[in-house]
Amino acid sequence: MSIPVYPQLHAAAFNHPAIDNHAHPLLAAAHRDALPFEGLISEAEGDSLTQDAVHTLACFRATAELRPLFGLGESATWDDIKAARARVDYTELCKRCMEPTGIQCILIDDGLGGVKDLAQDYKAHDQFTPSPTKRIVRVEIVAEVSIPRSICSVRPHLGSDTLDVVPILDAFVEQLSASLKKSAVDPEVVGFKSIVCYRTGLDVSTISSPASLKFSLLDMFKMYQDKGSIRLARKALNDQVVRITLEIAGKHDKPVQFHTGLGDNDITLVLSSPSRLQPIIRAYPQTKMVLLHSSYPYTREAGYLTAVYPNVYLDFGEVFPFVSGAGQRSIIRQVLELAPTNKIMWSTDGHWWPESYYLGTMQARQALYDVLKEVVDAQEATESQAVGIVENALFHTANKLYRLGLVIDTL
């Protein structure tokens, strides 16, 4: 094996322990085949996932990188990968994928749809890492629980023919605030996450009129009456949830993650740019905000926000393995164009399949090394400075931001 041109950078990129600052639970063994495996390499759905995603460079690369994991030769196809993994005991599969990653700690958003029925508990992931797993609380899920509770607590005290939602709105704000405050002081919870990007877009208003809030809640009220459940997707109410979260998070020094950019077809792409969060970023300067998923394809906008607002951080996750290798390197270059290197963090966005953690780590480490090697080659930074960038991005920035208090595991 040849000696790397920059051995210190190589060692940091490929071996330094990492904090996965945003991920989701793995499927439980009983449900290992509950979802199409193609979700490993694409956010698409339906035919776009099962028929088209397998023809992407991301899939070709994933196939090549998973072959050695299952002892397969160079001619093995994507279907061969699927057949091989099916023959491996699930516990062994998880260990085989997780052990090489060097992940020391995972921060898990366990509010992803389907988790309750299909996935392992977040604490079950402790078996894969030296440091215990921590939670990220998805606030829209908390709100969707709070609204029915508010309706049930207030409705009996209203006339049978009234549709006055003001008492319900007041009860909702009180219930949501109480739940979020409880999470804010829970040592297992290190941050919050909003998926307002999916629901109504990132152009969150700094204020909602009382009338718009009433109409939004009235829609929720009718949905609950008709279906017995709700999906929070009314702009005034969604924006209110974000504002309440930012206020409480700021007071308790808990970061708030925002889904930005890359996602499935439920997103309105033009409303997923982090630049649309600028009014909220200004309005809550005391609250630290993390822009998830490299904000792809709006990475430069995200880098700008981290450069000019002290409370904004950028996560460069999910693009591993969804984007081609060349695309991944381009994204990291765009991150580094403007973003302060002490404000960028890595994550896998691992979910469902253990291979998502494996590929999300290995590809990120490779891309970091490739790009920073170019930077050192161009004499735009020293090898020592490049090493610092890697170590901050993989570990130190997340450790400080989420107040994890971790010591690097050297085993």
From TrEMBL:
Pfam families: Amidohydro_2 (PF04909). Gene3D superfamilies: Metal-dependent hydrolases. The keyword rRNA processing does not apply. The keyword Cell inner membrane does not apply. One of its GO terms (molecular function) is hydrolase activity. Keywords: Hydrolase. Residues 221-367 form the Amidohydrolase-related domain. This is Amidohydrolase-domain-containing protein. It comes from Crucibulum laeve.
